[in-house]
Task: inverse folding
């Protein structure tokens, strides 16, 4: 798993980038609209409910339960979202896109509300400590789902069954690796986000963990690619792992 997970993620990097773009676009639309339109804010949420949300509910969510209990619940929820984003890719990737868009819209609405109220710093101070790693993991899961859907839509010279099998073996590795990533993100959200530290310390802690994850995937993933490894389940260190005894072939996005 030391190299198979980063190899699989690196192999799917274009799809992961596509998933990221979809989420960011869905996030930016309501965030920019609400941040720049008082009328939109009024239409989105009544003033009384909005004040309660901004002043108590949003921040209180992170400290309403003991850290261990909250971290476990967050891990379960994040794993569910990630699994849904991945597994739904079998339906040509359409449900995966829906998961990314819905989650992007939800975060975008919250961001827009806080920006409109002049509380942007507080919002990002609560989101970034865990969100950097958590959302990156969601993007990776979404990318895996899109790859699975693309194997069904455009299998290339292979039979669809073979294309799905090849891509599925890489996606399984990604899903197994993401379990640990979501666990770490849950611990960050349960213990670091609500911690009584300065904002820079909480965000800095989350950023360090995030950079470490990116470095791990980037360094090991690129090295694995240079040696012909794609991260498929059962792939040998020499990079040959097809069940039919053939060398693994990259599924290019076409």
Result:
């Amino acid at each position: 798993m030391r190299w198979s997970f980063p190899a699989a993620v690196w192999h799917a990097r274009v799809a992961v980038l596509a998933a990221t773009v979809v989420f960011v676009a869905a996030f930016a639309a309501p965030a920019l609209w609400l941040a720049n339109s008082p009328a939109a804010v009024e239409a989105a949420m009544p003033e009384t409910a909005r004040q309660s949300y901004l002043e108590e509910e949003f921040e209180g969510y992170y400290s309403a339960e003991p850290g261990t209990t909250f971290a476990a619940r967050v891990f379960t929820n994040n794993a569910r979202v990630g699994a849904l984003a991945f597994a739904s890719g079998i339906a040509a990737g359409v449900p995966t896109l829906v998961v990314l868009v819905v989650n992007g819209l939800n975060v975008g609405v919250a961001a827009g509300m806080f920006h409109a109220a002049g509380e942007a710093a507080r919002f990002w101070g609560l989101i970034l400590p865990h969100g950097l790693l958590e959302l990156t993991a969601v993007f990776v899961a979404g990318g895996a789902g899109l790859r699975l859907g693309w194997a069904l839509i455009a299998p290339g010279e292979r039979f669809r069954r073979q294309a799905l099998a090849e891509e599925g073996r890489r996606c399984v590795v990604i899903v197994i690796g993401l379990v640990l990533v979501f666990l770490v993100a849950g611990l960050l959200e349960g213990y670091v986000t609500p911690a009584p530290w300065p904002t820079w310390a909480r965000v800095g802690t989350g950023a360090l963990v995030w950079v470490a994850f990116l470095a791990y995937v980037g360094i090991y993933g690129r090295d694995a690619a240079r040696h012909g490894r794609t991260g498929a389940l059962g792939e040998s260190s020499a990079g040959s792992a097809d069940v039919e005894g053939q060398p693994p072939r990259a599924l290019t996005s076409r």
User: Anything to note?
Assistant: The two ends are 28 Å apart (CA to CA).
